[in-house]
Amino acid sequence: MVRDYDISNNEKQFVLAALEQNIRLDGRKLLQMRDVHISVSRDEYGYAEVSLGKTKVACRVTAEITKPYEDRPFDGIFQISTDISPICSPFFESGLTTGSKQSNDEILISRLIEKAVRRSGALDLESLCIIAGSKCWAVRADLQFLNYDGNFIDISSIAVMVALLHFRKPDMEIDGNNVILFDEDQRNPVPLSILHIPLCFTFQFYNPNDDEENIKGNLNNELILLDANLLEERLSLGSMTLTINKNKELCQMVKCGGLNIDASMIMNCCQHASNLVDDLTRKINDVIKKDSELRKNPVEKELQVVNQRET
Amino acid sequence: MIISISVPSKPEASDTKAGSSVVTPGELITDDPTWMRGHGTYFLNDKTYSSVAGTVLKVNKLLSVVPFKGRYSPETGDHLVGRIIDVGQKRWKVDIGGEHDAVLMLGSVNLPGGILRRKSESDELQMRNFLKEGDLLNAEVQSLFSDGSASLHTRSLKYGKLRNGVFVAVPSKLIVRAKNHSHDLPGNVSIILGVNGYCWIYKTPLSSAADHSASTAKTNAELSSAASGNYQPGQGSVSITRLEQESSWDIYSDKNDALSASIKDTISRYKNCLLSLSQCNIGINEIRLVRAYEISLGYGDTNLLFREEVRQSIGEDVIAQEKMRGAG
Amino acid sequence: MSRLELYSPEGLRVDGRRWNELRRFECQINTHPNAADGSSYVQQGNSKVLCLVKGPMEHGANLAAGTKLDPNGPVLSLNINYPPFASNERKKRPKNDRRLQEISIILKRCFMKTIVLKNYSRTAIDINLTVLAMDGGLLACFCNAITLALIDAGISLYDYVSAVSVGLYDQTPLLDMNALEENDLSFVTIGVVGDSDKLNLTLCEDKLPLDKLERLISLGIEGCHRLKELMDLQVRVAGGQLQERQ
């Protein structure tokens, strides 16, 4: 058994009392996100590292050609693997070695990321089809959680989307039933067709009053936090994850029980998230654009090739 | 926005005016702050709400809601039937069908050798010889802990391990609290109606059967086969006095006496009568049980009593008889 | 996929309802008086769900070995039984279906805030859900069934939690979706506490324009209040029957 993250009563009271006065321990405002740092790999396609405060996640996208699922012959395959290993934090158990049941948090994290990216149709699966019923691309995004300081869901959605945007699959030609793949040097690899960029925003709820007030009262002064860190996440009484894209479409809204929140406050959360999504999308696009510009520079590429030969 | 669905109008409007008013979770009971809030309620500021579905009970200034259904919650002095589920350090854990398991301390049972005998370490080591997992016993609630779990005792002749019978569980709400919960019934059969809804129907022990036989003789007429049987179970042990019985290991014996087929038949008939009453949601006491038994004799063979419709009609007959007698 | 007309120009849906109408809602409590402490049966249109609640008790059957009972409240365990015959395609579900796992976590967290925790320290409550037939509104049916079964078990709740799904057809919100509508339209399931406007759970898995959300939620809340009334009615009727002869 892994020990849970124990928080002393003093610490708990201190954090909650501070929150009631709209103060967070790291100096942020209640609805402010931590700074997002995105870096992508220079010399390969489909690798991104994202950090949000101390939380850090890496994502690698790979692709191979396989047979499509029988019930969906015209679609490619897209999988996201989220195995949370004890590397990021001792609170997570390694599922592979012990074979134990995943904890509730782990199930939720992987489900929410899966729904945010895959189910919302961020990746155009039909474009991955090569020959209907016999050959298609299977794209796989492997998430590696490197450090845990709260809010895995939001950061993972960013990491997967950046890595997908960054990825290039080899160009190919179809010759009857054969597929010819071209090397990077022969033809430029092609990007995936990404339809939209869904991003997750997770809100945490806190109750300064007792349960009776939450149920029957009409103060509606529950506290709402965006992008909680580990300590805040452990103290929260309920959470809600919104997945939104730039077109102001809600792709997912999951509030897993917990504290009861007035509908109007939930609408405010949605509004707030939709304001943030533009900035974040722009940031992601900037990173991708900068990267592709660097790659376009032929001199640099030439030099790289030369370098490789020499070593 | 109008959601248009036709529903029968609320029928409870008339009920609420009657003496006992029905409330459901989240319903406002009163906004008068002078009431003390009891079980089944919660409050915010001055308002008291119900947290269960049940009837409002007002005792002096105490306001509580009695749920329609629910697990048994023990009270001091309750006569219970329970099942040992765990043997621990100086205590047994007893399942009494409540929210928590009850404890039976080694110090609150009668051990072989008389009341005055000191409890030694060797007793602790052989606790399993007295009572072990799966044993049924009847006991009384001695005291309650702060979380509502009970501590039991068996320091009386009428409590202790149960033998020679069958176990029946009915909802605890149906057992009508009475002064006495163990009864000798017609047909040489006794019953313990545990307040927790666990009941034990068994052959009347010989000692008490002797004082009782006169009163049951008449109702026993139709069961003459039982009386005329040559075999008298436990005949050899009649001479043991009560004091001796108490101090001997007999009270913790696991061996059932040999029961005649007719006793077994009677026991099973009572069991079905008990279940009939339970199925019809009729409060259970000795009088009703005997009445149900008498009615069931009219239905013939015991095997038929397993049928749901037979049980239903027994229950209804009991109610009908009660009404008739009440009127007459 | 066949192009069904999900919402006709005259304002009728595939099953003949208008946009703001619930499906026929029927419920019973105390359906299995001998098998469990509390039981309920909920029927929303053609979706049928059974719920059995055992507890509060000290030794939960579903409790994993070594799990300690919590001194601050009950340990809820939730088991969903979704047999192959319950839905249209007779598909055998893998043992750990992620979707059902997620739903069970959501429901668990939902009811941990609804049960009056302090009354049930060091106890376990087992909830067993069985789907008899599914025609949309899975989470909503589960939620309503659990609420009723908990009430039937005599467990203290702060209030009812009623849930319903609301979908969007073009510009029109549709209340209480059936499976046909769920397949083609995006929808959101919301769970409301009692008569308030407070949401306990929301679940939306498909794309929805953000500006339509408010209408959907307000329609959903109306629907939930209606369901709560219907459930309340049934609880009172059943309670009266139980009381009658005692």
TrEMBL record, chain A:
SUPFAM superfamilies: Ribonuclease PH domain 2-like, Ribosomal protein S5 domain 2-like. One of its GO terms (biological process) is U5 snRNA 3'-end processing. Residues 32-170, 220-273 form the Exoribonuclease phosphorolytic domain. The keyword Transcription does not apply. One of its GO terms (cellular component) is nuclear exosome (RNase complex). Its main location: cytoplasm. Belongs to the RNase PH family. This is Exosome complex component RRP45. It comes from Pichia angusta (Yeast). The lineage of its organism: Eukaryota, Fungi, Dikarya, Ascomycota, Saccharomycotina.
TrEMBL record, chain B:
InterPro entries: Exosome_cplx_N_dom, Exosome_RNA_bind1/RRP40/RRP4, KH_dom_type_1, KH_dom_type_1_sf, NA-bd_OB-fold, S1_RRP4. Gene3D superfamilies: 2.40.50.100, Nucleic acid-binding proteins. It comes from the Eukaryota. Residues 71-143 form the RRP4 S1 domain. Residues 1-24 are annotated as: Disordered. Keywords: Exosome, Nucleus, RNA-binding, rRNA processing. SUPFAM superfamilies: Eukaryotic type KH-domain (KH-domain type I) (SSF54791), Nucleic acid-binding proteins (SSF50249), Ribosomal L27 protein-like (SSF110324). GO terms for biological process: CUT catabolic process; exonucleolytic trimming to generate mature 3'-end of 5.8S rRNA from tricistronic rRNA transcript (SSU-rRNA, 5.8S rRNA, LSU-rRNA); nuclear mRNA surveillance; nuclear polyadenylation-dependent rRNA catabolic process; poly(A)-dependent snoRNA 3'-end processing; TRAMP-dependent tRNA surveillance pathway; U4 snRNA 3'-end processing. Residues 22-57 form the Exosome complex component N-terminal domain. Residues 165-204 form the K Homology domain. Its main location: nucleus. Belongs to the RRP4 family. This is Ribosomal RNA-processing protein 4. It is found in: Nucleus. It comes from Pichia angusta.
TrEMBL record, chain C:
Gene3D superfamilies: GHMP Kinase, N-terminal domain. Belongs to the RNase PH family. It comes from the Eukaryota. GO terms for biological process: exonucleolytic trimming to generate mature 3'-end of 5.8S rRNA from tricistronic rRNA transcript (SSU-rRNA, 5.8S rRNA, LSU-rRNA); nuclear mRNA surveillance; poly(A)-dependent snoRNA 3'-end processing; rRNA catabolic process; TRAMP-dependent tRNA surveillance pathway; U4 snRNA 3'-end processing. GO terms for molecular function: RNA binding. SUPFAM superfamilies: Ribonuclease PH domain 2-like, Ribosomal protein S5 domain 2-like. It is found in: Cytoplasm; Nucleus, Nucleolus. The keyword Disulfide bond does not apply. InterPro entries: ExoRNase_PH_dom1, ExoRNase_PH_dom2, ExoRNase_PH_dom2_sf, PNPase/RNase_PH_dom_sf, Ribosomal_Su5_D2-typ_SF, RNase_PH. This is Ribosomal RNA-processing protein 41. GO terms for cellular component: cytoplasmic exosome (RNase complex); nuclear exosome (RNase complex); nucleolus. Residues 21-155, 159-222 form the Exoribonuclease phosphorolytic domain. It holds the Pfam family RNase_PH. Keywords: Cytoplasm, Exosome. Component of the RNA exosome complex. Specifically part of the catalytically inactive RNA exosome core complex (Exo-9) which may associate with the catalytic subunits RRP6 and DIS3 in cytoplasmic- and nuclear-specific RNA exosome complex forms. Exo-9 is formed by a hexameric base ring of RNase PH domain-containing subunits and a cap ring consisting of CSL4, RRP4 and RRP40. It comes from Pichia angusta (Yeast).
